[in-house]
Amino acid sequence: MKTEVIASFETPFLTRVELLRQSFLPEKKQVNTPRLAFITGLHGDELEGLYVGHRLLNFLEQIETNNPSSLLGEVHVYPAVNPPALNHASRLWPGHGTDMNRTMGLPKPKELTAQFSSKLIEDIKTHADIAVDFHASNLHLQELPQVRMIDEWSSSLLPLAMLTNTDLVWSHPMADLFAATLGYNLNKSKVRTLVIEAGICHRITPEYGDQVFAGIVHLMKETGILDQSVSVAGRMKNPLPIRANQVISVSAEKPGLFVSDCHLGEFVGEGQHIGNILDPVRGKVLEEIKAPASGLLFTLREHPITYAGSLLARVALEKEPPP
């Protein structure tokens, strides 16, 4: 493993903050073998990816030590790309209050966060043909492991996404907020980038982390970065590919406490009871929450306090509805 500092800055108290790349290089460079980058920690409150990064680094170090000939292509791990936010366990870059994943691709950046982002994205573009940008959900929702992609790139990304051992692959339209994200700008630069989301912020869900780790190993094998002889534990899942019209959202109509009585990853039936909105002051059940359609429950609210309009769940339909 080769460690390289690709960006750094000094704080007012004379400590240095460094952005690292951990690289694993094959003994013999193979012609036309793609190079993979794994990026995590863009948001400092999303810890799920740090666990996946740990597993990947540990696995690649063992490969390098015990079976180096099985590594056929370059792998570059960016294990904690927003150190200031990670040290504060905050989504935003502290002090500046900037979302690092909304500063990508800006021309001639002057602000420190954007400069850091520019160094990161240029380094990835130099070292990778395929990238995995790993995220967790926010404080309110838990997500099944899923790949999210913009419709514009779904034809080139879907074959890769189906190798990742996630539960579903969600292709959705472009929105303005994606224009300054890492995933969008890497794809625009012809680095095929899968944005994976799993779990919830401020937590580590080993079950999901192990699932995604196994998927990344599988992805490396199927793209020729790892030899086929390398084993990966468990049976690979076939993700459910969905489009925007196959996602049904469930929102609260009343404020209160949401208590679910189903589990993330269940296939629910139309009308099935998902949970209740409770009145904690008067002891009443304010609203019974039921599944609006049959499908995979892939998003479920974890934070119990809700207001009218709060997202409670998402259900993925197995087939596109008729027009």
From TrEMBL:
Q: Which cofactor does it need?
A: Zn(2+)
Keywords attached to this entry: Hydrolase, Metal-binding, Zinc
Q: Does the keyword Transmembrane apply?
A: no
**Which GO MF term does the entry hold, naming one?**
hydrolase activity, acting on ester bonds
The family database entries (InterPro entries) matched by this protein are listed as: AstE_AspA_cat, N-alpha-Ac-DABA_deacetylase
Q: Which residues form the Succinylglutamate desuccinylase/Aspartoacylase catalytic domain?
A: 33-221
Pfam families per record:
AstE_AspA_cat
Q: What is this protein called?
A: Succinylglutamate desuccinylase
Q: Which organism is it from?
A: Candidatus Nitronauta litoralis
